[in-house]
């Protein structure tokens, strides 16, 4: 009798276990549907052209593997995902500036990765002109991953898994920098955030509270010239009255253009998922959104040449600030933050 | 019986092979040979000490440049453009010989090319071949190609290790370092019907530091972004000539 029960319970356990595995498989498997190029209707036309790099399940899966693999760094300690955390919309929450190899500090705040295919240029100063070539920057940066592109390719060629993955993605197992970069682009390019409560409100699928609506109204009045809907950036570079920091010595866009008028100009960042991406600004100098708003009303500086829109600061009452912050929190997109497609395949499911 | 079926197949394969070997050879038709020199001396990396316009001694440890958008003009003024980009690297002898396929036979009076990579080439994302970023001719902090890279040493250089470091690139105004060169053949270049031609182009590395602006290595030993890049680009604009 005993034995019979044992067998039955073992069988039941086995079934449950295998069901769990089937479930897990679905969680990790990337299907054709997962990589469909289907962009939000109210967004403009993407600026990145997928024509030469049409996402496939295999290409995307390879990109995902690379993104979370520290093999891209010199001592195999740092992956892209180390600095770009999914739960923070791929920013590095609670870190003012980036931490790279050997704990070395960078001088800029890690920006979120979202809606990248609508960006004209990348980085806080717009120094990178195409999403495909962006990863070369962190891979070779001495305070980030400090690796040589040639060595990365060599390591991938020697690995047990990558040649087969490149073959699945590109037809043969040859590993080139172009294939590596394009696979990463398939992964990061599909990171689209368009399902926050704000988006649902705009599509008449959800409502906002009175406070949030008042915040939205104020936002459109005071902030949207620069943080333009629906992407919450107008893709320009502006001086937001941020004082020059003589320890970081980061003068922004001028380093790219050589134009004196670009001193302390930085890219207008998107504010999507802003609740998750603290601290704020190009060097993470503000811990929370209240400090950002206090900056716009009080602590901004004209020393470094501030944008004409901000010369007199922005007039807001304390209640206005609370309402704007309430509105900004409606930009948190749980669909994106918990999208299984972008989860680290080496982690337990969460 | 099987033979009957196999033979025609074999015949057609043989015919195909034969046809293929009779078509125009795939070999390069025009060979352009780049000969790097410093003034009237050959360029030899590391070992020869040269003098710049101000008489300052220097050696060269690296010399690389991009050539793109080559076109030939024939005696009737018709222009034949070719679209490949080439990276000439003193360290790699094979890179100094480039082959251009499918040039119609005829008489050509001049050759035009770009020093560097045109702006479309600088913005096209991840590329392969000569434009593969692993060739170390790519800027990542301000993305785009380094058009001309010269490195060396000079005892008067104030850079650490007395280094000379000239990495010149940039495709956006006002720091656009793309230069276009047209060189006339004194005797028309003939591509005969058998389809072979040969031309040697000299690249004088000394010109980077010569005209119109003579460079004083004690004042300028490193150019790695837009600062002073235009001065050097204007200098290298005339570094090429036809070797007759």
Q: What is the number of helical segments of chain B per DSSP (H or I, 4+ residues)?
A: 3
CATH superfamily of the largest domain in chain A: Cytochrome c-like domain
Q: Mean of the pLDDT scores of chain A?
A: 93
What fraction strand of chain B? 35-45%
Extract low-pLDDT stretches of chain B. 19-25
Number of strands of chain B: 15
Shape of chain B: globular
Q: Provide the succession of SSEs of chain B.
A: HEEEEEEEEHEEEEEEHE
Query: Measured on Cα atoms, how large is the radius of gyration of chain B?
Result: 22 Å
Distance between the termini of chain B: 66 Å
Domain count of chain A: 3
Helix content of chain B: 10-25%
Helical/strand content category of chain A: mainly alpha
The stretches of 5 or more residues of chain A where confidence is low (pLDDT under 50) are: none
CATH class designation of the largest domain in chain A: Mainly Alpha
Number of continuous helical runs of chain A? 13
Question: In angstroms, what is the radius of gyration of chain A?
Answer: 23 Å
Oligomeric status: heterodimer
Strand content of chain A: under 5%
């Amino acid at each position: 009798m005993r034995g019979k029960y044992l067998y039955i319970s073992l069988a039941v356990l086995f079934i449950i276990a295998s069901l769990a595995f089937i479930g897990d498989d679905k969680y990790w498997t990337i299907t054709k549907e997962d990589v469909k190029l289907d962009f939000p209707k109210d967004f403009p036309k993407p600026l990145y052209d997928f024509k030469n790099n049409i996402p496939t399940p295999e290409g995307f899966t390879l990109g995902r593997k690379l993104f979370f693999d520290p093999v891209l760094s010199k001592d195999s300690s740092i992956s892209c995902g180390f600095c770009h955390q999914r739960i923070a919309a791929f920013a590095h929450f609670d870190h003012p500036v980036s931490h790279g190899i050997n704990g070395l500090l960078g001088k800029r705040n890690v920006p979120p990765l979202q809606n990248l295919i609508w960006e004209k240029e990348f980085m806080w100063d717009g120094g990178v002109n195409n999403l495909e070539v962006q990863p070369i920057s962190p891979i070779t940066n001495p305070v980030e991953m400090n690796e040589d592109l040639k060595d990365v390719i060599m390591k991938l060629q020697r690995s047990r898994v990558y040649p087969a993955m490149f073959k699945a993605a590109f037809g043969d197992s040859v590993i080139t920098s172009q294939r590596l970069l394009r696979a990463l682009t398939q992964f990061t390019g599909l990171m689209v955030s368009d399902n926050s409560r704000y988006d649902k409100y705009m599509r008449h699928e959800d409502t906002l509270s009175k406070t949030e609506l008042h915040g939205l109204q104020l936002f459109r009045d005071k902030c949207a010239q620069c943080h333009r809907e629906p992407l919450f950036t107008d893709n320009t570079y502006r001086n937001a009255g941020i004082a020059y920091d003589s320890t970081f010595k980061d003068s922004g866009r001028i380093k790219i253009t050589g134009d004196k008028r670009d001193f302390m100009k930085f890219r207008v960042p998107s504010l999507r998922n802003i609740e998750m991406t603290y601290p704020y600004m190009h060097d993470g100098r503000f811990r929370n959104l209240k400090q950002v708003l206090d900056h716009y009303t009080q602590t901004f500086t004209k020393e470094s040449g501030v944008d004409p829109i901000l010369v007199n600061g922005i007039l807001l009452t304390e209640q206005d600030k609370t309402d704007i912050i309430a509105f900004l929190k409606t930009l948190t997109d749980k669909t994106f933050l918990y999208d299984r497609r972008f989860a680290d395949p080496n982690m337990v499911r969460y | 019986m099987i033979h009957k079926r196999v033979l025609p197949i074999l015949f057609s394969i043989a015919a195909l092979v034969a046809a293929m070997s009779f078509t125009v050879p795939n070999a390069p038709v025009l060979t352009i040979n780049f000969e790097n020199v410093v003034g009237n001396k050959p360029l030899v990396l590391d070992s020869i000490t040269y003098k710049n316009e101000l008489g300052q001694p220097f050696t060269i440890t690296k010399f690389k440049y991009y050539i793109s958008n080559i076109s030939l003009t024939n005696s009737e003024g018709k222009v034949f453009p070719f679209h490949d980009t080439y990276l000439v690297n003193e360290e790699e002898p094979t890179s100094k010989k480039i082959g251009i396929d499918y040039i119609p036979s005829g008489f050509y009076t001049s050759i035009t090319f770009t020093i560097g990579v045109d702006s479309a080439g600088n913005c096209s994302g991840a590329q392969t071949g000569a434009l593969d970023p692993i060739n170390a001719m790519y800027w990542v902090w301000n993305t785009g190609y380094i058009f001309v890279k010269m490195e060396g040493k000079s005892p008067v250089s104030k850079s650490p290790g007395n280094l000379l470091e000239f990495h010149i690139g940039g495709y956006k105004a006002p720091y656009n370092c793309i230069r276009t060169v047209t060189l006339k053949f004194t005797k028309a270049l003939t591509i005969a019907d058998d389809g072979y031609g040969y031309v040697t182009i000299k690249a004088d590395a000394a010109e980077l530091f010569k005209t119109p602006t003579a460079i004083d290595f004690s004042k300028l030993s490193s150019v790695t972004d837009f600062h002073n890049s235009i001065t050097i680009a204007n200098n290298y604009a005339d570094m090429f000539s036809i070797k007759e």
